[in-house]
Every structure is written in C-alpha cells, then in structure tokens.
C-alpha cells in the first residue's frame, strides 16, 4: 500500500476539501449555538461574497493579497523552514512601493512606473527577510523567532517613518500623502468599462492578474528549475542535500529573499491598487492569514490560489454575516480559525483515511482490470 504513490489531485484537492467540510460542520454548530440557522448563515455568506459583482470584487481583492502572503510562506516551507515574517515583509514592501509612487508619480507614465514599483516591492520585502535569513544560515538562529521579531520591528519602524518623514504637514492622520493618480493601478471596474462591461465599484484592481502570474511562476521555479530542486531537496533532507553538494546557507538566504519579496508584492494590491497611500496597519493581519492559506493549499501554488479564494470568501462573506445578523466581527476570525485547525493541526485526521480509501479503490480497479484481461 505504501509503495503506490498518492496522486497530486488527492493531496492538493480532495484532502483540503475534506478538511474544509469538517470545519464547516463545526462552524454549523457555532451558528446553531448563536441561534442562527447554519443554512441561512451559509446563504448570507455566499450571497455576500458571490451574489453580485460588488461581492465578487471584494472577494477577489482579498484573494489577491492572500495569494502573495500564502506563496511567501509556501516557498520557504518547501525548504523545510517556516516564514512567520510575512506581515513585516509586506509592510516594508509597502514602503518601497510608496516611495516609488510618491517620488515618480506624476513624472513618468504608469507603464514605466509599474515595473519599478514591482521591483521595489520585491526588493524591499526581500531585504527585510535578509537579516533573519543570514542569522539562520550563518548563526543557527531559529527563523521562526527572528521573523516574528522582525514583524514588530517593521511596525515600529513604519510608524516612525510615517510620523517623521512621510506624514504631510497639517494633518493628524498617521499616513502618507495620497499618490498622484497617474501612479494608481487601474481598478477592474474602470478597465472593464473601457470595453463596455459594467460592474459595481470595488477595490479589485489589475494586480490580481499579477498574483495569478506569480503563482504560476512560483510553480515553474519550484518544480521546473535546478534552484527549485535544490530548495525541495533541502526541505526533504537537509543532510542529504548537503552531501549532494547543495549549499545550505546559500539556499536558505535565496529562498528567504524570494519569500520576503513575494510578501512585499501584497503592497501592489493594497497600497498602489486600493489605498493609494501608506497607512498604519495596512497589512491588517493578512501576512499571518497567509500561513493558513499555505497550510490549506498544501504549499502548492495551485492549492494556494484555491485556498486564497476560500479565505477571500470567508472575509467578504463574514462581513455580510455581520451586517445581516449583527454578530460580532470576530466571527470571521472564528471561521478562519476552524479552517486553520482542520487544515493544520488536524490535517492528518482526514489525510490517512482518504489515502487508504484511494489505495483500496485503486487496488480493486487494478485487480478487476487484470481479471477482465485474463478472461479476454
């Protein structure tokens, strides 16, 4: 049984769906305790997230950010490490994007500025992961501890920079000036209006397509390049990878730089695409939610896209639930926590039964085919 390989569609598709189903059953008990019909709650969430172009816009907007932060965790996890620093890396990535937009906005066209802001998001986010990576590679410091610490350092540093350097004079709000409109990433409703398609206004912008492209690029990098092979080899067996000639310190630093850069991309969606200025708390826990997205997506880019859509649904649908039933805003956190619980801590509860069932059915089909072939 153990010799037969479990196909990827079981690992990336069926098992996560089973985990979500278990989380949904427990969530139904929570709604029942709150004296809310679970089916009515589900209907309200589905309508809020998918019932209109407005709901779709917000769901896909959240999905875009979750793709970036989920990939930032997943690529590092493939190397056998846990990147908890997505929150801070996204924050510093926002600083890079903001400086580009504040400095070049109104002076160069968007077609020139956008590639620069993409590079700035990646470089600033990646460099913020450099020191934890170096400490892990050269000094043996645990990457989880250092990346968590750097989240708090990033928040404090951004607060200092906004107050002392970027906050316009005469305003009390701790935020930068609004970017020049020529530097804004076009919104989806504005773009579709150019070809005669009308949808409701929402924060969804064209950075969603960049997120999907980046997810594909990460898949190519991890499974179709030599560097990706080295990363996965290190994650599978660091001692064996070192024996095979792979430089562990070099790989640690490389993959952490990539992970930090991917988290920094979130700023394209939130800062350049929606807020159009740097604000305090702009990441809004999406860096930490990226950990759950990566767990739910089994650290595979395709799975992360689907998991990001699920968490976008939970975020937007949960907002509709608050409006419809006046429940506490933290119900969204509860729903996300249940998904994390069954996708992370209890992931093997459904994993082993599903794999055994698949192997049993596969063995039965193989025996049946052999019997039919013998009879023929």
Describe this structure in words.
- The chain has helices spanning 8-33, 38-50, 53-77, 86-104, 110-128, 130-139, 143-166, 188-193, 207-224, 226-236, 238-243, 248-264, 266-275, 286-296, 301-325, 331-345, 347-375.
- It contains 17 helices and no strands.
* Strand/helix succession: HHHHHHHHHHHHHHHHH
- Overall shape: it is globular
Q: Tell me about the biggest sheet?
A: none
Indicate the radius of gyration in whole angstroms. Answer: 23 Å
Mean pLDDT: 92
* Helical amount: over 70%
Structural class: mainly alpha
Question: How much of the sequence is in beta strands?
Answer: under 5%
Low-confidence stretches: none
* Annotation, overall tally of beta strands: 0
Give the N-to-C terminal Cα separation.
28 Å
Features:
376 residues, mainly alpha, 76% helix, 17 helices, 0% strand
List the helices and strands and how they pair.
Blueprint: H1 8-33, H2 38-50, H3 53-77, H4 86-104, H5 110-128, H6 130-139, H7 143-166, H8 188-193, H9 207-224, H10 226-236, H11 238-243, H12 248-264, H13 266-275, H14 286-296, H15 301-325, H16 331-345, H17 347-375
Helix pairs in contact: 1-16, 1-17, 2-3, 2-15, 3-9, 3-12, 3-13, 3-14, 3-15, 4-5, 4-7, 4-12, 4-13, 4-14, 5-12, 6-7, 6-12, 9-10, 9-15, 10-12, 14-15, 14-16, 15-16
